[in-house]
Amino acid sequence: MAGLPARLALLMGKSYPSVIRAARPVQPEIVSQLLSATNLDKIEAMLASRPRADLTTLVPRRAGILLPLCFVDNVPSVIFTVKDYNLRSHAGDVSFPGGRMDETDKDIQEAALRETEEEIALPRTQIRILGLWDDMVSKSKDTAVTPVVGYCGHVDLTKLVPNPGEVHSIFAMSLATLLDPAKRQIKSTRTGNVPMPTFEGGPEVVWGLTAYVLAGFLNELVDSPAARL
Full-prediction pTM beyond 0.85? Predict the structure, then answer.
């Protein structure tokens, strides 16, 4: 966070202790029910009631990413993309679908839905928006990235289509894997030596901004009423 305006760095650090804390075990019977209709309502209520870090007044541009909760083969999961390896920036990064807000988008939610449909051909009509997570700042430090938490229902990964030139591949990881403390590591970044979360156990290692957003959301999720039987 070095070099950022003091207020912006303070907002970014607001959720940092939660993000890097050790994951606690979650009972399998709880994980299997996290995306039930009742618990989706609880997640929506959790997101609506929590104070959110809003960085949109501090940087000139906005982008929306979708944190896509879903079922894959009847297993509660999260969808990820691997960015195209020929991109000038973020090449090969594991990411959530999403991108810059443009003039046609009425709000950041619409931007995230539009970009998701363009990148992986997941229809926006299939996605229920549950709420917004804390803003992050892009590597270029000029864009506030807003995670939009959405429930995508039952998804057939074989019917998702990577947008050539933008997305190399699409994969999913189960919530059971993502919530397994043995699959989550806290590692120092190569630049700045800052402890950051990573998620292992899937086709790709989830790291960077994607892992930061995911760890914060999952840590708060398991403390919420949705994770209580």
Answer: yes
